[in-house]
Amino acid sequence: MTVSHMTEQKTDDALSHWSELFDQADAEWAALMAKEDKKRGVLPPGHRWQFKRVRRGNGWAQVEVAVPIGEADRMMNVQAQQKLVDRITAPLRALQEQTEIKWGRGRLHQLVSVDTAARFASAEAKLHDAIASNDSEAITKRTEVMMRGWAALEREALEAGASPDALPQVWEGVLPTGKSFYVVRMETERPQAVARYGLGVWTLKEIGRMLHSFDTDGFTQLMKDEFGSELIQVGGEPPF
Predict the structure, then answer these.
(1) Domain residues for 197?
(2) Which of 17, 51, 81, 214 is deepest in the core (most CB within 10 A)?
């Protein structure tokens, strides 16, 4: 009887010890949450905290904002759906990138029949519709159709006697900072140049837009037309 009583007493003491530890942990957790809530502010009823990416100076920061529970769920669903779409369509994006590097952006569509180009455009529209409807089975099916479509474009272009673009002519310039930049004539040549030189590739059309934005009154262009002047500085005090 004595042994049994001692065993029961030890068991009760152990349970009491663990209960105290759990109570202490709960109290510490509640204190921590109260501290965090104080930093974040009062959470309105029917809301929950949601991380949001916001602009801070020259960079980005993650901050917590209070959003309605329904809105938070919607945002999470949208993010999850976008990840699913990205994973399903990743092989298609890779194939498109490889094909455009090989042939030039938008060039294959110009080398096939009107009927083939129209069927490709229809398949592309159906993929966009599937993505908009959040139908993963339809997205998968339409992605596979589009991959076959890219193969069909290339096959028909080759059968018509066309050949992939040779490497485009690329001009290299140097910024005042010493960083290099690259220029191609047109947008169709950009993928091949990007594959070789990186993302810092400009087209003549883009440079034209920048010149127009800079020289809105046409004075700089007038100096070029009349005197062949060289642009040596933009802004600041005159260098002479």
Answers:
(1) 171-227
(2) 81
